[in-house]
Design brief:
Number of helices: 12
Radius of gyration: 24 Å
Distance between the termini: 48 Å
Structural class: mainly alpha
Shape: elongated
Number of strands: 0
Oligomer: single chain
Helix content: over 70%
Order of helices and strands: HHHHHHHHHHHH
Largest sheet: none
Amino acid sequence: MVGLQQVFKSFGLAFIGSMHPRMLWLSLRPFLIVSVLWGCLIWLTWTPALEALSIFLTTSIFTSWIQDGLIWAGFENARAWIAPLFFVMLIIPLITISLLVFIAFSTVPAIVNNVAKQAPYRDLACKQGGGFFGSLFYTLWSALICLALVMLTLPVWWIPPLVAVLPPLLWGWLTMRLMSYDVLAKHASPEERDLLLEKYRWSLLTMGIASGMLGAVPTFFWATSALALILFPIVSFVALWIYSLIFVFAALWFSHFLLDALKELRQEELNKSLTVETRVVDMELPYHG
């Protein structure tokens, strides 16, 4: 895999950097904002949402079999907790995606600027290959695709092996898309960004999936633990901060990797240019043999 050594090197740098107080604050700020917004929204919609979902689960031919099957299996009180459980399962992906999108907009630029000030990257010129509207479109489009995939695959998240596989793949793909674009938006030109994403596609996807696997830990607990349903407000806040820490770590990881790759790409282009110029000069010199 191209860039495997850089993957591990940037991982170590990101791990150390994520312990810095500034990075901890950058993870806490989006967590607080998203928690307040989603907390208010859930508080306002909890009762009507549960009523509507309970009616849907009871009357719909697509979902009524779930409740009937649970009752047949001996869970007579399924009617009491099946609707809250479905609501939690539906709300988890929305909260996670919104947090990742918010961090991509509000936090990643600050992280990239912090990393770019470090000695290895100070000489990198800023070519402004991406702007606000480009980032906005790319982020929203990627989030919509991920949300559609979540909705399509959500029914099989109940199957134990898949709940540990699908979330990392989905969060990993979305993390790769958002982090790769936002990290390179300021420093790389569109041509350089395309070259790097093509050259390091599998390395970046591996980094995204690894970040997704870390992020799948609170998702797995949410999806499989009855305690998570009982203590949903407390568990959701703790899980959100874990998500936020992981996304900040991922931003550091992608920043170190891609800025180092950009530096290497420009050095290679400079070497090629100097080689071509040297050959041209040698061809133009008169022969005195």
